[in-house]
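Many introductory courses stop at the sequence. We go one step further.
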Amino acid sequence: MTSGNEPDTADVLVVGGGTGGYSTALRAAALGLDVVLVERDLVGGTCLHRGCIPSKAMLHAAELVDGIAEARERWGVKATLDAVDWPALTATRDDIVARNHRGVEAHLAHAGVRVVRAAARLTGPRSVAAGGREYTARRGVVLATGSRPRLLPGLVPDGRRVVTSDDALFAPGLPDSVLVLGGGAIGVEYASLHRSMGARVVLVEAAERLLPLEDAEVSRQLGRGLRRRGIELLTGARLTGAEPYGSGDGGGVRVTVLTDRGETRVHEVARLLVAVGREPVTDGLGLAAAGLATDARGHVAPADWARLETAVPGIHVVGDLLPPPSPGLAHASFAEGLLVAEVLAGGAPRPIDYPAVPRVTYSSPQTASVGLTEQQARDRGLDVVVNTMPLTAVAKGMVHGQGGSVKVVATGGGGPVLGVHLVGPHVSEMIAESQLIVGWEAEPADVAWHIHPHPTLSEAVGEVFLTLAGRGLHQSA
């Protein structure tokens, strides 16, 4: 680095060290570019420190708790749950996060990426001020500043009674009751987690169904599964008031909800968890100095989606700053980072096929999908054929005993597969095959020749395609 007030120059300046930012930095460095990564907090971002990784660690613990109940009630294994040692559980979670964080830091160091720990501000199309210095980019600037929980007017999180998805995992102790506001993937996961840990759970969603972006059948089956677990679901409902009451451990939040029938319901819960979506973080970024502006929802839209480049040449965007069709998912951010790095290195990578990005909700039951929903396909005027098979129609599904299904949306007349939608146990681990099927525009007949192992849940995927290809074995056409 240069001394004094002289600009420090690099090939690429990356602003933000979350999944999109650090993947850009690592790939650009691997391609021989000199990279400076500016991150005001910890590399790894929300996904690693407050979202994906710690929440999935906790959901695994929740699955173990559920397994004890299943062992006792279904399999005759006389097991009981004495208690959940919350400090021990969170210590394991934090160790997983810490080891991942050290791994990311080690990868960046090994790649020769210079990490600047400071807030960044754009000072021009190719320049960034950070930590009292100014950095300039020879090839381009990449914006990857991520997102934060979206809040509702008048609802102020306190980290204890009223929490967001960013701090819910780190709030003190396990509440005995919780109202989750928001029935998207994050809200559903947190509702599932708290129910597994013994809490009374109310899940409120303003849309007419849970996971409103998913296939309608997925939403219906998920709702049935959550209700069977004792979660109270209120869809088409909205929050009209939230008031803390009491003090100490005896206190809570009095939440008022207007239902889809026009009824007012009051719920007294120990904790209100707000999960109504996320919004891009651009505070203090100085977009105007670089000639940029946000859209109505705070995103920085690219002018060229094939290069994820803005209207200002040399400034690219990845991750949660992007508007739809980018889904705001960590694995999409990785792909976006790879693409931008390769563009900045002079390559011409294939544009991201956003409909082929898989979507997963890690609740119990899980959901996983890729491609178009049935309604989306019909809205496009496509000739559509649909086949659905319950997971309990295969032996391994009976073993798990948790229901679920496989639904395939394909083009009529044996044409390409348009979408695959799964609900049930462990379907997050089954979606990769379907991502390849949709991404490569395979036809049911192509898939039907591939043999799925027996007995597995994946057999249901194979059976659905066999039937669509006219070779049905355990399912009638």
